[in-house]
Every structure is written in C-alpha cells, then in structure tokens.
Write a structure and sequence with these properties.
- The structure is a single chain.
- By secondary structure, the protein is of the alpha/beta class.
- The protein is 49% helix and 18% strand.
- The chain is built from twelve helices and nine strands.
- It has helices at 2-34, 74-83, 87-107, 131-141, 155-158, 163-175, 191-196, 206-209, 219-231, 244-253, 269-280, 287-293, and strands at 40-49, 55-66, 70-72, 116-121, 149-154, 178-184, 201-204, 235-238, 257-258.
- An eight-stranded mixed β-barrel has the order 1-2-4-5-6-7-8-9, surrounded by four helices.
- Strand 8 (235-238), helix 10 and strand 9 (257-258) form a beta-alpha-beta unit.
- Helix 3 runs parallel beside helix 4 (131-141) and helix 9 packs parallel to helix 10.
- The radius of gyration is 21 Å and the shape is globular.
- The N and C termini lie far apart (60 Å).
- The structure holds ligand C2E and magnesium ion (3 copies).
- One magnesium ion binds next to strand 6.
C-alpha cells in the first residue's frame, strides 16, 4: 500500500514539475536575451570604514528587472545562469559595467584613494583560462588601478578547488587584484584550507551576525570568528550589519570595514553617486549621517 501511495503522490506532482520545467526553460531563454539589455542593471551597496563611517568602497550587485515578472533576485537567476552556461557572459557584463562606473566616479573626483570596487564572480569563472586576461585588459582600458578591484568568490564553490582555480587565483594576485572569499562561515571549507589558498580576505556571511534566537545576538561568537580569521592571517569584512549595536561592537574589535542595511541598502547608480558626492564634501562622517541619508 505504501508503494502504491508513493506512486500516486509522484503522479500528483507531475503536472507541477512539468510546469516548473517549462517555466525554467522559458526563464533560461529570457535570461539569455536579457544580458546586455537594460533589463539587467547593477546596484551598489556602500562598504563603510567602521572606525569613521566613511564610504571606502561598494559591492556591485546585479539586478534583473523582468518586463512582466518584476524584480527577480540574483539568488534565483545566478544559479540558472550557471546552469545554462550564461554566467560568464553575465559576470563579464557586470565587471565591465562596474569598472566603467569606477572610471566615471574617479574622473569626477568622487573617490577616496583607498576606494575599492567589490565585484562578485561565480567560481565557474576561475576555470575559464581567459578570465584573468579579460580583467587585466579591462582594468587597463578603463585605467583602473588593480588594487582598487576586489573579486568576491563564494566559499562553497571553492571547496572543489583544483589546479586551474588555484592558477587563476595566483594570476589575480600577481595582477594586484584582491580576492575575497564570500559567504565565509556558511560553506564547508575549513579555515586551514583557506589559509593555503592565495586569498587575502574573507567576507563574513551575515548569518554570523544574525541572532540564533530573538534578542540574543552573540557578540562573543562574532569576536571569536573575527579572531580566528585574524589568526589565520586574513583580513575580514562584515556583511549584514543591521543595527547600531552591531556596528559599534564591530568597531570595537579593530580596524574593520562592513556593510549592511544599518548603513544603506544596495542603491541604484544615481543614488550611490549622490551619496559619494555628499560624502566627499563632508568631514570625517558619523554613522548617523549615513543612516539618515538612505
Ligand atoms: P553576496 O555577495 O553575499 O551579497 C550580499 C547580499 O546580502 C546581497 O543580496 C545584499 O543585498 C544582501 N544584504 C546586504 N546587507 C544586508 C543586510 O543588512 N541584511 C540582509 N538581510 N541582507 C543584506 P543580493 O543582492 O540579493 O545578492 C545575492 C547574492 O547573489 C550575492 O550574495 C551574490 O552571491 C550573488 N550575486 C549578486 N550579484 C552577482 C553577480 O554580478 N555575479 C555573481 N556571480 N553573483 C552575484
Ligand atoms: Mg558578495
Ligand atoms: Mg556575502
Ligand atoms: Mg551571500
């Protein structure tokens, strides 16, 4: 009877699965068409120097404004792009857009010297032998100094890290571009493994800051994670800072940068440009200036 039940359960779901498969195929072709059009754009989330509140960088985050389905989250379409082999084109479009924007801001004198542009790439890109050359020539064409670029790569994706990936990481390092391991604390890689990779920094996943139960976020846990990263000789950037308390606590830990809704959500280009412009006219900022301005 159980076997029979199981079979009928599967049958019940078949039409849904069929529909989902068709929807996926449709979305896949729509996504292919969307790359390079104005359906895709990027938003910029400020990265803040926690000791003085100044904006010392931005993270570039892709957005898909679907003509009929509305805003689709990258959490949904990045995996799809990876699956259909369109991630390379997408990531390179984002990288190009980001570095063009950097050049515009710099020409307008809106950027402090230590400003860094943080761009996410899929780890699939590390297996593309021409990725480093692509970035190198783009930096040159846009006259962007390599240290101004930070490439974020998701931790879990690196676990499989083979020789080609390691070669790409070393080539980026040689080029002077920083590599940052994203979503640190959520993947399966051990810190001893990360120490062996040619990476400089980790982006601590927001789940590390999040409260395990309501009203009980754990500063001691956060401090321990930070100390571990430091002891491994890596730099840390915190994401998902949502409260003033978290911002102040992180500031007490050391010279740190961070980002999160407490400071600002990811902003469309005109808004981030306005923020950069206003900041450049301000003396060393306070956090309340930033949070008031969003
Ligand atoms: P990520 O790189 O870890 O980016 C941080 C995500 O956390 C962003 O989500 C951001 O909007 C969100 N976030 C920032 N501050 C806060 C906060 O205080 N609280 C909370 N709850 N969330 C916060 P988003 O923009 O939806 O991006 C999701 C993921 O999609 C990114 O995670 C990244 O892995 C991927 N992604 C985004 N853009 C690209 C891209 O151009 N290429 C690739 N390959 N992946 C991308
Ligand atoms: Mg990221
Ligand atoms: Mg992250
Ligand atoms: Mg993430």
């Amino acid at each position: 009877a159980a076997k029979h039940e199981g079979r009928s359960t599967i049958r019940t779901f078949e039409p849904v699965m069929l529909y989902e498969r068709q929807l996926r195929t449709l979305m896949a072709s729509e996504l292919r068409d969307a790359i390079g059009t104005d359906q895709l754009c990027v938003h910029y989330q400020p990265v803040v120097n926690l000791s003085d509140g100044s904006v010392n960088g931005v993270e570039v985050l892709v957005r898909w404004e679907h003509p009929s389905r509305g805003m689709i989250s990258p959490e949904d379409f990045i995996p799809l792009a990876e699956e259909i082999g369109a991630i390379s084109e997408l990531d390179r479009w984002v990288m190009t857009t980001a570095l063009q924007q950097f050049a515009i801001w710099r020409a307008a004198l809106l950027l402090p010297d230590d400003f860094q542009m943080r761009v996410n790439i899929s780890a699939v890109e590390l297996r593309q032998l021409d990725m480093v050359d692509f970035v190198r020539s783009l930096l040159k064409r846009m006259s962007v100094p390599p240290p101004a670029l930070v490439i974020e790569i998701t931790e879990s994706a690196l676990v499989s890290g083979g020789e080609v990936e390691t070669y790409s990481l070393l080539s980026f390092k040689q080029l002077g571009v920083s590599i940052e391991i994203d979503d640190f604390g959520t993947g399966y890689s051990s810190i001893s493994y990360l120490r062996k990779l040619p990476v400089d920094m980790v982006k601590v996943d927001r789940s590390i800051l999040q409260e395990p139960a309501e009203g009980t976020w754990q500063p001691r846990f956060v401090a321990a994670v930070y100390q571990l990263i430091q002891a491994a000789g890596l730099g840390a950037v915190f994401e998902g800072i949502e409260t003033q308390e978290q911002a102040q606590f992180l500031r007490s830990l050391g010279e740190l940068s961070g980002q999160g809704f407490y400071f600002s959500k990811p902003l469309p280009e005109p808004d981030i440009t306005a923020l950069l412009r206003s900041r450049s006219a301000l003396p060393l900022g306070q956090n309340d200036v930033l949070s008031g301005g969003q």
